[in-house]
Every structure is written in C-alpha cells, then in structure tokens.
Amino acid sequence: EAGVAQSPRYKIIEKRQSVAFWCNPISGHATLYWYQQILGQGPKLLIQFQNNGVVDDSQLPKDRFSAERLKGVDSTLKIQPAKLEDSAVYLCASSPITTVETQYFGPGTRLLVL
Amino acid sequence: GENVEQHPSTLSVQEGDSAVIKCTYSDSASNYFPWYKQELGKGPQLIIDIRSNVGEKKDQRIAVTLNKTAKHFSLHITETQPEDSAVYFCAASTNTGNQFYFGTGTSLTVIP
How many angstroms separate the CA atoms of B68 and B50, rounded? Predict the structure, then answer.
C-alpha cells in the first residue's frame, strides 16, 4: 500500500511571496489533515477534511492560509503572503474514517521563509 | 481545548537499557492515545496506541500504560537499540472529530 505523498519536499521563499504544497493521501482514505510542525514542537492541526468538506479549520490563519480538497482526493495548502514565522514543516496525514483511528503521515514539506 | 505535556524533552540511554517517556493530558474526554516516532527528515510513524478502556498495551519491546484517573500515559522501551534513536511524540484525541493534540516531543538517543 502506497503511503501519503507530499511535494515538494523542500521550499525556500522570501517573505511576502506565495507558496503551495500538495498532498495525495492513501487511496480510499476519506479524511485528510494538514499539520504545521515548527522546529522543536509537536505537529499542530491546521485543517481537517472529510472527503471534500472541511471538518475543522479553527486553527488555520485564514488571512493568509487556504486549503482545498477538490474531488475528495488530493489536497493543496497555500500560503499567501508568507511570513518569517511560517517557516516550518507542513505535514499531511490521512485516515480511513473520522472516528478515532490511526493517522498516517506523509514525509512533510520543509518551508524556509527568508 | 486539550493540553498535552511531555517529559523529558531529551533522553540519553545506554544500549540495552530501558527508556521511559511520560505525558499528561487535561481533557478527561480524551480516549485515544497514540505514540509516534519521527526520524530525521521523515513524517511521524505510529508505533503503538492505547484506548481509554485498557490500562496497558505491549508490542514486543514497546509498551504503553494509561492512568485515566491521573490523566497520564507513558511509553516504555526495553532493551533499547541504536535504531530506536529518534524523536517520540505522544498525542491525545477524543471521539469527536479525531483531532490529535501532540506533546512537544522527546529526543531519544541510544548510545552504543
């Protein structure tokens, strides 16, 4: 079974630029999560989708972050404009159902904002 | 919301010794507690989990214990090996929404 795929793996941008990350979850997984992991901290949930609907985006900074999951499969996370404090690893995870269940994480995208 | 605290932040042990990592949580509604291992440059990988209806779970050299009354749970690794060196995260979750609240991580180093 293929795991969660993410791209790019690394991205360096200047502040005020925009950036987008892509995630392809495990086939058949209805739920998809985007996490932000700042160096030295645990992952923090940004947004959760079930199929193509948003379940929880309460911690997403909506003035600059946006995410979509068209057709309930792949997802993109965008930052526009980026700030220095957005430097982090952005992790995508998926799980089969929205009840308590294992989340499978991708390798992450490491973003550096200069 | 839920608050998960994790200790210690760093841990060094000799190969073959045991390692223990402890977490506390604040929300009594939390009922699922996974542990993840994160190696450098990789995403977190689930190593063991426990649900609130059991007090202990073991998988070979890894075990997790849960004390619901005290709201704390622990990861125990016995006979540690150099390949156990990584950052370990605990998390807590409730049935509603499946949002995970992660601890701040423990960097484990196993010295050969």
Answer: 11
